[in-house]
Amino acid sequence: MHNYEPSNIIPRTQLEQNLGEQINALISASHALNVRTAARFDSSLQPASFLIIRWLFSFGPTSASVLAESTAMDRSSVSRLVNQLKLMGYVTRETSPDDRRGVLLSLTDLGRQRTIEALKEKESVFYERISKWDDEQLIHFIEMLKLFNGYDHK
């Protein structure tokens, strides 16, 4: 593990490279865990389907266009995956209360329950990794991630 005390002067370019390596490790580990979580949700589905499920679980009912933009998928892929999820009973379509012509997609009770079950494994992996951290370390990590992700607006 690297020691980044101020007394150990490390060139900024090396620090940025080290940060890039750690971000890449986080993204890779997160992707692998997402694939395993998707398989736990329903092994017959593509992992991209679980990305839609996970988004709806976190943010609630939304339109297909918002889903496409938020998940960085093209609209036709989202439409195809949503249709499959509807047929399997995980997602439902409802008329938007704000715009009677609009359609909102949301999880069914079955979809929500299966998501909760699938996420238990994912959460346990992350909870295990932070289990030895004290509250101050966890607060600092959360705040640094917020800053990095551009969510530093209080």
UniProtKB/TrEMBL annotation:
Source species of the chain: Cohnella silvisoli
Protein keywords: DNA-binding
Top-level lineage group: Bacteria
Domain HTH marR-type: 12-147
InterPro entries: HTH_MarR-typ (IPR000835), MarR/SlyA-like (IPR039422), WH-like_DNA-bd_sf (IPR036388), WH_DNA-bd_sf (IPR036390)
Protein name as annotated: MarR family winged helix-turn-helix transcriptional regulator
Lineage: Bacteria, Bacillati, Bacillota, Bacilli, Bacillales
